[in-house]
Amino acid sequence: MPQLHTVREGQGPAVVLSHALGCDLSMWDGVAAALRERFTVVRYDHRGHGRSPIVPGAFSMDDMADDAAELIAGLNLGPVHFVGLSMGGMTAQALAARHPAAVRSLVIANSAQQYDEAARAGWQLRVDTVRGQGMAAIADGAMARWFTPEFRADAQGAALVAQQRAVLLANDPEAYVQACLAVGAIDLAAGNARINRPTLVIGGTRDDATPMAMSEAMAATIPGARLRHLAASHLSAIEQPQAFAALLTEFWAGLPA
To answer: For the whole prediction, is pTM greater than 0.90?
Structure first.
């Protein structure tokens, strides 16, 4: 397992936050700030992202789930509230299916459990674009998918968009490509049907990257899963950190002691 870069803050029940493709743990700044007075909040950079090392060669979502399980064990956190968004939400699904003892509860936001052939072709096109033209060739499209137009036009929102654009551009192109290939190949439905941890699925009503129908499909597959929504685009945790954190704390407050 790569030695993943982590940030640990606060005191209380353990929460692990898992970020989206092309991002890093700074994606969770607003949510972490809202949680750290009541929870031990651990954020980490996925392999090949942020300050975590690049692992040469191909890898799968199962490998990313194993990374998360080893991180949880290595930090001696015990079963955690695991929260993942987009690629982080895919990691969350695989983690709960493969390593249920590591998970106390599960939150999957703005994510998917599988892609159809048309979507997989879109992932391959993105791979080919990055390999041929570099990260800058996909940056404008990513910002348009990640954030609503009004958030991008707002002064405070525009600063956060610029920050995330810089994070995306800093990605090693081949490491990003390998993550795209892992994401595009997901087929998590069978594992989701076996998940036996309390689960909250959060969808964005303005998310064109992973539309609400994808969240509805996950919630229907995972036994007992609850479904909530935010009026946000793909990176809902950046657009609406307070509302996102409120959904988490409401969910956790209703769990058995």
So the answer is: yes
Which CATH architecture group holds 6-114+186-253? 3-Layer(aba) Sandwich (3.40)
What span, in angstroms and rounded, lies between the C-alpha atoms of 2 and 252?
30
Q: How far apart are CA 112 and CA 110, in angstroms?
A: 7
Q: What percentage of the chain reaches a pLDDT higher than 90? A: 98
pLDDT score, position 257: 75
